[in-house]
Design a protein that fits this description.
The chain is an alpha/beta fold and about 375 residues long. The chain folds into 3 domains: about 120 residues, Response regulator (Rossmann fold, 3-Layer(aba) Sandwich), CATH 3.40.50; about 140 residues, GAF domain (Beta-Lactamase), CATH 3.30.450; about 100 residues. The chain has 10 helices and 10 strands. It has a 5-stranded parallel beta sheet with strand order 2-1-3-4-5, sandwiched between helices. Strands 7-6-10-9-8 form a 5-stranded antiparallel beta sheet, sandwiched between helices.
Length: about 375
Amino acid sequence: MNTSSPLIMIVDDEPANCKLLEQALSSNYETIICPDGEICLEKAPISKPDLILLDVMMPGKNGHEVCEQLRLDSETTNIPVIFISALDTLEDRIKGYDAGGDDYLGKPVHLPELYRKIEIVLKNQIENNEIKKIAEEAQAACMTALTLGSESARVSEFVNKTLTMGSIDDICKLFFDTMKAFGLKSVVQLRLNDEIITINSDWQSLPLEHELMVKAHTEGRIIALGKRLFFNYQNCSVLVKNTPIDKEEVYGRIKDNIIVLAEAMNSRVIYLNTELNLKKQLDVNHLYKDTAKAVELIQQQLEYSTSETISIAQKMVHDIEEKLVFLGLEEDQEHALLDILDVSTKQLVDLTEGNKEKINTAFTDVISTMEKANKLTSQ
């Protein structure tokens, strides 16, 4: 990747589209324009862009054909490609995925989404070298382990180990290790309580894979699309990217094995979700008890403060009455002053009692609402 601003190649036969993308990216990226696929294939090995924004519908070579040729050239095989197209169905995205695309963006282009996808793809590209090394080491270890046992033994080992696993990362690692031992590349999507996690066997989270699996999850339990197989369960989906469709017996055996693996993983994820919900319920219960105790203390303090306020006001009236004889006031003046004090004291008492009642009512409503919420979360 370039050490200065990342270089993005824009490939589109429409000059207006090129100009729009060039202006949108000019503040953060360097750009190079290619009006068709042939020029892209000529310039890419020389300029070595950090990312290619590739239109799908072009005269001559279309975007899919261009991407396939980029992947065949050792100079351009690792350059990430984001397809840009008005065709946005699951089948269209799979075509882009099969051609070697890293992500897919529909037309008209939504600039915030474009910026987000570019940032994600470039970030993944920065990490690719380290991830590739780790993946190669893991692949070598898994291929060595393949000779140590049969497929059924590995499936049984996976099921037994997942029964006690408490970490999503550990479950995914064991699954990928098992799949690599079978010579399979895979993607897992886990639907947890608060998020959906999509990760592939190279420990990457690619936006296009995420979107493909989200769309496929609603299409059925098992979906076969060429050499790709989707397995969908309540909290877990699996995509196998390289099933041997030309070997019927091996294909059927792999399919059966993955069903067992996916069901075991789904059951464990459901258990972990339930365990997390129970922990949250315990936290809610503690919060309810702590809040109720705090409200009770506040009410007691309010009762004490109200009583003290009334006592002070009454004492003030009493003290003034005792001092009036020393002020030399006429009798009617004394009565007038005492009447004012009586009225003011009564208003103060009424106000204090009224506020106390309103606050107590509010606190009662708070406790009642928390009780209802506590009951709902415990169901």
